[in-house]
DNA sequence: TTGAAATACGAACGTCCGTTCTGTACGATC
DNA sequence: GATCGTACAGAACGGACGTTCGTATTTCAA
């Protein structure tokens, strides 16, 4: 099998496994079984577990950006792009892009107290960039006069993200659909009361 | 050492370890080292890892109830008791009652896709009871005319919990204090705009 | 066709896991 | 003071972990 092709196969499966079992719970043997390879074959591509974890986070970032971030830039900036982001995120979760739910939220809460896991910084970094994106979109909408000028964009980002986190908990409770409904209502309410 | 005393010592340490390493990442050997006992000594109290995990969830429930739930019933019902709950939850997190943050949110998102872990049901059950409590407090406040009659108590619970989840993410990003400030503002805003 | 490089297998290593078993202190009971 | 049961240590097990290494197979260029 060609080098890149095999590496991609491994990573795509590893990302899904990590989203379910956790980034730390990810095991080389488990990945090997899942892609029908030997452990030695996996180690030929990733010299250590830490490097596999780092590559997994990188791949998850690409997937998330492709599913949630990049599509919204085809929409006009401001409020419409902001709404596109919330829609894209709900669609991303509903489509089970990651089998375990939201890869980054799972990883962040799993690793936030484990300093010895190298991938922790990459996860936090990506999460921070996502929050900055929401904040930036809010600033744009304010500049365009679509959201109230006195709105705190950071608080706006906090509340929008919080709704998304709520869905994840409802999902964990086996009430995914109700969670979506509540989160959509909460997000919409946030946008409405933030509008001019 | 007396049976109960030793069992309590083990559980108290195991709860803290599980809140950091995860309920599944908890290991008998790790607990044994932490309490300066042998693995055999631990197994004398808990015949299997699953039973240890179950006891840990039970102990964590007691701790959470003691820190967040029970104190609020010394306050008058309705809006004041609701405010007491949000204050108690922020205090519970700020005090690092669990070293790893919120034990139950960590455990819920860790286990939500792992059906083979028996403790998963207990975690979800306790989480559900907490949400029901918030909802019930909202219903009481509505009945007393302190919150708007047309308010959806389940959505209220969703939004209040979501703010708490936001703090956990901010904590994972190393911005705990900012997270507290944002969550307090969001919670207060929710209560204000839900009031009559 | 031949040679070299890429690619993956399979075995082995030391460590840690959960679990079980035996031995041994200690404290209460009669 | 002998007896008994509790509480724990310590060793051992089979298995999974991450990692390394030697070898076989494939791939492609010369």
What are the defining features of this structure?
homodimer; mainly alpha; 9 helices; DNA-binding
Give your account of this protein's structure.
The structure is a homodimer of 196-residue chains. The first copy, chain A, is mainly alpha-helical and 196 residues long. The first copy, chain A, has nine helices and no strands. The mean pLDDT of chain A is 97. The interface between A and B is large, with 45 and 45 residues. The first copy, chain A, binds a DNA duplex (30 and 30 nucleotides) through residues 1-3, 6, 27-29, 37-45, 47-49.
Helical residue percent of chain A?
A: over 70%
The end-to-end span of chain A amounts to: 57 Å
Oligomerization state: homodimer
Low-pLDDT segments of chain A: none
Largest interface: A-B, 45 and 45 residues
- Estimate the mean pLDDT confidence of chain A: 97
Rg calc of chain A: 18 Å
Topology order of chain A in helix (H) and strand (E) letters: HHHHHHHHH
Instruction: Give the beta-strand count of chain A.
Output: 0
Query: Which shape of chain A, going by the Cα principal axes?
Result: elongated
Give a topology summary:
Two copies of one chain form a homodimer.
Chain A lengths: L2 H19 L6 H7 L4 H7 L3 H21 L9 H16 L8 H9 L7 H25 L9 H20 L3 H19 L2
The structure holds a DNA duplex (30 and 30 nucleotides).
Short summary:
The structure is a homodimer of 196-residue chains. The first copy, chain A, is 73% helix and 0% strand.
